[in-house]
Amino acid sequence: MFAALALFILASATAMFVHADPDPTSPGPGDVFIEGQACSINWNPDTTGVWKTMIIQLKTGDNFDMVNLTTVGTVDGTDPTKASFSYPCPQVTPHSPIYFYQFSSPASTNSVWTGRFTITDSSTDIVPPAQSTQPDGEAIPWGTGQLVKSTFTSTVIVTPTPTGSVSASVSALGAPNATSSSASIGTTTASPTPTPSAGAQSTGGGLGLAAQSIGWKTALTLAVSALGFGLIL
């Protein structure tokens, strides 16, 4: 009787924990994805309701020193109607079967992983993994890849404000996660000295010549008047 009760308890505990974590089903060895096209991920969901927040990260490296490349998405790992996810495949180097996904959740201390797969720019451009065995000797090929960063260009617009502070708007283009931000660059107590435009300089010169002309005319008029007055006398 006690043996039967122990087996029942063991079976119940196993039933409780066997599906506690999502079970990744793809991708895996032999799968090839093209950069810029859809990278798809599939799994059997957690049926206990624990993994409502499931973080999916693209990783590389060996089984003991995993290197995180990027977080590709956060999904509900308990929803059986949404047990898949896809996103545009990033550019990576090398093009080799050395990439895999890690599933994790803040509600669980466990993590689960997919098998290793390839991301490449062409199905014919695939190189073998750099390492043939894991650090513990297990015959699982691996390597360490990285994301290829796009050309990063930025535009900075600086605008003086009435108080003398200078604001800058920075726009980043060409990066996978391009962002725009604005920032305040310092606070200047002294206002910039305005530089006269060519028109202002021309106007000032014209005013000076006009004054000189008026002065000469006045002196000539007085001289003629004095000469005429002297002749009369």
Report on this model:
- With 233 residues, the chain is an alpha+beta fold.
- The chain contains 2 helices and 14 strands.
- The strands form 5 sheets. A 4-stranded antiparallel sheet has the order 5-4-8-9, with no helix packed on it. A 3-stranded antiparallel sheet has the order 1-3-6, with no helix packed on it.
- Strand 4 (54-61) and strand 5 (66-75) form a beta hairpin.
Main sheet attributes: strand count, strand direction, barrel closure: 4 strands, antiparallel
Helix/strand order, N-terminal first: HEEEEEEEEEEEEEEH
Approximately what portion of the residues adopt beta-strand conformation? 25-35%
Radius of gyration: 38 Å
Count the E strands. Answer: 14
Strand order of the largest sheet: 5-4-8-9
Mean pLDDT: 73
What spatial form do the alpha-carbon principal axes imply? globular
SS-derived structural category: alpha+beta
Helix fraction by DSSP (H/I, runs of at least 4): 10-25%
The low-pLDDT segments are: 151-161, 163-220
Tally of individual helices = 2
In whole angstroms, the N-to-C terminal distance is 156 Å
